[in-house]
Automatic annotation (TrEMBL):
Cross-referenced Pfam families: Abhydrolase_1
A molecular function (GO) term: hydrolase activity
Species this chain originates from: Chishuiella changwenlii
UniProt keywords, alphabetically: Hydrolase
Protein name stated in the entry: Alpha/beta hydrolase
Domain AB hydrolase-1 stretches: 9-223
Length: 237
């Protein structure tokens, strides 16, 4: 008896990779799907090359090298933006999209806080604004962001990518994505507020929108059980 091959899933993290913790997602779907979690090359020595176009090119190359077929792309924040751009560029080489707090329309980026990089408490307060569920904010998490903010190369790279993301508003082209899209949004998301989710929902013709209460910008980390419930329902539909 032939076994049905596992479907491929790609997880795309946000501008601060440590802010997008996919561990519970991998635990939940890892047995049923081939799950890939590439580390996006956010830090490039040539700041001019830090663009969403380069990140999409990286994903295309990653898919080709790993012989991934018709993937389901799941993206948080900037990762959602990359997933959308990939889908627009490769309309016949993906199955579904899952977007959580995605950029692509509007976002209040954390990289804008880098003007006060030496102030640890200030950076900590900006990280806290990303999450509604404060229990997930560890010292290690804040230290990682503080370290990135104080590394000139990394900080400039992130600022360049964030600026490129703000320039690339996808409102007028989202209607071209006809494949199924799940939007999962925290009701207390201050980075990409709920009205952003509503706008995505209006412009993506085959989309479904689910809100999660007591949740900020990183739902898979803040409310993993609820997020994974919506995710598994969508994947099996």
């Amino acid at each position: 008896m032939d076994t049905i091959p596992k479907r491929d899933v790609i997880l795309l993290h946000g501008l601060f990779g440590s802010l997008s913790n996919w561990s519970t997602v991998i635990e939940t779907i890892g047995l049923e799907y081939n799950v890939y979690a590439p580390e996006l090359p956010l830090f490039n020595r040539s700041v001019r090359r830090n663009s969403l176009e380069q990140l999409v090119f990286y994903v295309e190359k990653y898919i080709k090298e790993n012989k991934i077929v018709n993937p389901i792309l799941i993206g948080n924040s900037l990762g959602g933006h990359v997933a959308l751009l990939y889908a627009l560029k490769n309309p016949n080489n993906f199955e579904k999209l899952v977007l959580a707090g995605s950029s692509g329309l509007f976002e209040n980026t954390l990289s804008a806080s880098f003007v006060r990089v030496k102030d640890y408490d200030y950076i900590k307060s900006k990280v806290e604004e990303v999450f509604e569920t404060k229990e997930v904010i560890t010292k290690e998490l804040v230290d990682d962001v503080y370290s990135t903010a104080n590394n000139p190369l990394k900080a400039l790279s992130l600022i360049a990518i964030a600026r490129d993301a703000k320039r690339q508003n996808l409102k007028d082209v989202l209607h071209k994505i006809s494949r199924p899209v799940l939007l999962v949004w925290g009701k207390q998301d201050h980075v990409t507020p709920p009205e952003v989710a509503e706008e995505f929902y209006q412009h993506l013709p085959n989309s479904r929108l689910e809100y999660i209460d007591n949740c900020g910008h990183v739902p898979m980390m803040e409310q993993p059980h609820v997020f994974n419930k919506f995710l598994t329902q969508f994947l099996s539909a």
